[in-house]
Amino acid sequence: MIKPKVFVELGTHFGVSYFSFCQAIKDDSINCKAYAVDHWKGDEHAGFYGGDVYDYVYEMNRLHFEGFSTLLKMSFDEASKEVDDNSIDLLHIDGMHTYEAVKHDFQTWLPKLSSSGVVLFHDTCLRKDDFGVWKLFSELKDQYPSFEFIHGCGLGVLCVGSHCNAQLLKFIDSAKEDPLISKLFASTGRKHSLEYQNNHLKKIINKEVPEFAQLFYKCKEEDYSEYNSFSHVAENKNMQFIFRFNDPEFVNSIRFDPLNNYIKIKLNSIELFLNNSKIDHPYSLSSNAFRVDGSDYLFVTDDPQIQLNFESKEPVEIDEVRIKVDYVYKGNEIIDYLTREIEKKTVLKNILKKAKNLFFK
Q1: Of 276, 258, 251, 273, residue with least CA distance to 327
Q2: Tens digit of each residue's pLDDT (9 = 90 or more) over 194-217
Q3: Contact 52/231 with Cβ under 8 angstroms?
Q4: How confident is the model over 123-151, as pLDDT tens digits?
Q5: Which residues contact 303 (CB under 8 A, 6 or more apart)?
Q6: pLDDT tens-digit map of 257-270
Q7: Is residue 204 part of a domain?
Q8: Three-state DSSP class for 358?
Q9: Is the Cβ–Cβ distance between 212 and 234 less than 8 Å?
Q10: How many domains does the chain have?
């Protein structure tokens, strides 16, 4: 409806939402300049990650949207100095989600909005931990024409410009009066989400998307979460992953997810470091894998996990984890491997079958 001339997103990560905006700009032939702002290092809410994520986003942008889309690899405050006042028609705020952080982002970028400016706040429905977008949006929603989509994690729409698009303002009034409008967006979003998941699984099977290894860590007796994690693209058969913390952390346990796919791996080493010195702290390993061919791990799941359990109950201070892995088989290769193993053990399988028949008689 608003056909913005300038669109800015604060916090892009893998680019899921940003590239959705770009696709809409492209499909509807909107004369718009789009800017993604992120330092591509992560934070406490999104999790920390390496440069592979930026490389992936950069390549996607280069291939599909380079004509009108620009990636600004810097902090939000640094980027605000590069953008003219009164120039942005649509701003999507999706950075650090504490109340203080999102309020700072809103106040910093408010002068950059045009007279028809609209601000979108992501995650307005999340009220866990120190998430505070909901609190800021509740303070602002009565100061400006606004509407909140409550499906998913929530999306707040705030019309801050003095001359916002009349069609959009009419839509907001209608959506507040008729709950079916919000439900239409929710059901359409659900449809797209299911289609995406289906296509994503197909691409994983055909190995057309990057496959990621992740490291999760616990600082207290809590569940593992994406907020305390790192990720790297697993692109080669033989990989060394280096997961670096911004500052030393006292961790209680570590979990390594070697891939988001079925795999057979040889785990060569896991090393812990503090200030570039290796730490020899005793630990044991547990996993959701089958141990095969000696020391190999066979994962018949798309969520493989290897947990490192410290023998002492005291947390261990580290700032770097290095893991060496040989990816023996990935994805569809696992099916071929299992088929060969079953064929090798035909005699054993027949003996087992006879034993079961005798037992059940």
Answers
A1: 258
A2: 887 777 767 666 655 678 899 999
A3: yes
A4: 999 888 889 999 999 999 999 999 999 99
A5: 257, 260, 288
A6: 999 888 899 999 99
A7: no
A8: helix
A9: yes
A10: 2
